[in-house]
Amino acid sequence: MNRILYSFIISLLAFSLNVNAEDALMDALTGGKVDFSFRMRYEHVDDKSKRSDLQEADATTARTTLGYKTGDFHNVFGYLQFENVTDITDGNQYNSGRNGLTAKPTIADPDGTEVNQAYLGLKFIDNTLVKVGRQILTPREAPFHRYLGTVLWRQNWQTQDAVTVTNTTFKDTELMAGYIWNNNTIFGTDRDMKAPIFNVKYNGFQYAKLEGYYYDLEFDDAAALSTETIGIRANGAYPMSETTKLIYAAEFADQSEGDNAPTAYDANYYLVEGGFKMKLNSFVTSLMAKASYEVLESDSGVIAFRTPLATGHAFQGWADNFLVTPTAGIEDTYFTMVATGKYDTKIIVSYHMLEAETGGFDYGDEIDVWFTKKFNKRYTVGLKYAAYDASSDVGNTKATDLSKFWAYFAFKF
Residue 260 to residues 194, 223, 226: CA-CA distances in angstroms? Predict the structure, then answer.
């Protein structure tokens, strides 16, 4: 049992020693809320970078979570959540990231049971929430977890051992500051860190939302991943009619090496995108389409802009071919369409044209398709497909085709 969970339990026990508070404590402990989720998924991978007889892999896995949030006791509450990932079939068919079968295609869903979250929430100051312990850190809503995310597509989610302070005192403004001392990975492992983080969002403008951020991620045992990033973002929508809005986003960030990184570098990130959202009076009730241009620069072809705590699956294609930025950097020109239909149906289609930021070669193109159907707001079925078609350009470090297919069922309450 980890030190965060010990702190969580000890704190609750300390409260129980106060005889005068016994009834109030019991009310808080028993008057909380249970949450439960389950997701069963089949995944098939065809990876042409592997030996010809080992290019295909299949996995059927189940993710189960059970959590409990207490009621408030003198402006303090606790949350504890367990997570289990179980392979339903034969785990020897694929590389889980922990089973040592590196010759086979990767399906990064290793078996295991862990404490996914365990934190105390403190509300001693108006409009301020302090969380201490293992928690999910996502300053942006999914799927925009560009720097801090849960990697929510994988069965074992990423969490952080941290202290965070969120304040909403100022009108239309949310301030978040924190310090991460341990990263809990999707593989059930952990990485010690020294990482102050800061994020501020302002929503007071009619047609624009603003964000500024600073993330100083220093990994004790993986110094090559240490980064220091500062950036700004603006996004919003402008109504053209009662049914149609123009949408846009623009972002810029500068990154350099962390304090303990072995190599100095400087690289920029920028994103520009535009499109529209439209309400329709048909089976398709809404349609969103946008074009985007995202760049993760390289510093002289040696080191490129990187996001080691991001939900990487959401960027540069769902085939997960660019979870680690290649040293030549990335220029990603892509188009996205989201159609929402009646009966809680949705389809997402995207197309990526991926090039090296330096070096003058193409990586390849990728097509992604995702269909979901919800039932009674708690149940979801989905089909998802990603196909990366590699370029034959000289120098391409991603020169082999890769495709993936998923089918899943999920529910939560």
Answer: 10, 6, 7
CB-facing half-sphere around the CA of 191: CA atoms within 13 A: 21
CATH of 3-412, one of 3.40.50.880, 3.40.50.1000, 2.40.160.10, 3.40.50.300: 2.40.160.10
Cβ atoms within 10 Å of 51's Cβ, excluding its own: 8
258/255 Cα distance (integer angstroms): 9
pLDDT (tens digit per residue) in 77-134: 999 999 999 999 877 899 999 999 999 999 999 999 999 999 999 999 999 999 999 9
The reported pTM is 0.91
Residue type, 111: D
Helix (H, G, I), strand (E, B) or coil at 4: helix
- pLDDT band of residue 3 (cuts 50, 70, 90) is low
pLDDT number for residue 14: 56
Contacts of 307 (CB under 8 A, 6+ apart): 146, 147, 325
Q: Which two tokens stand for residue 94?
A: 């694929």
DSSP code of residue 322: T
Contacts of 60 (CB under 8 A, 6+ apart): 40, 41, 42, 43, 87, 88, 89
